[in-house]
């Protein structure tokens, strides 16, 4: 899915120099350490708990199968973020991709999440997807604002959709982006290639 982007790639943020690179099996211990430091609440919008070693192994298997592309944000050799693009070419929705993104607490508000979301969005554009979705708990206001700034719009509210380890239920908001429509509008205005980074 990532043939149009080359990695590693470096970005300057308020948190310092961040390297983006594609996740591989060798990154499993570093990603597990990153996931285990995240507040549990930050993991609720993901379909599975990535702080569990067996879940992480299954994730790497999906990367190797080509169903998932995961970008790691690395600062001074430590994973500080992960942006993932999930596509299923064998589903009824092969034109739709899901973006999942988590960033460590110590670099939040410093441009890492914005750079990672833009890079993951660029990967999705390169994959030729027509629609993108992203989901998060309704109280993750900064993340919602970040994706809205990329053109995502709220499309659904799933009430009591996830349950945390204390048994408390949380609502999930689903944001969508019609990439094909935006691309067509830009081309109509004479800006071909404007959505390709």
From TrEMBL:
Molecular-function GO terms, alphabetical: acyltransferase activity, transferring groups other than amino-acyl groups
Alphabetic keyword roster: Acyltransferase, Transferase
Gene3D superfamilies assigned: 3.40.630.30
InterPro entries for the chain: Acyl_CoA_acyltransferase, Bact_Acetyltransf, GNAT_dom
A Pfam family this chain is assigned to: Acetyltransf_1
Domain N-acetyltransferase: 18-171
Protein name: Acetyltransferase
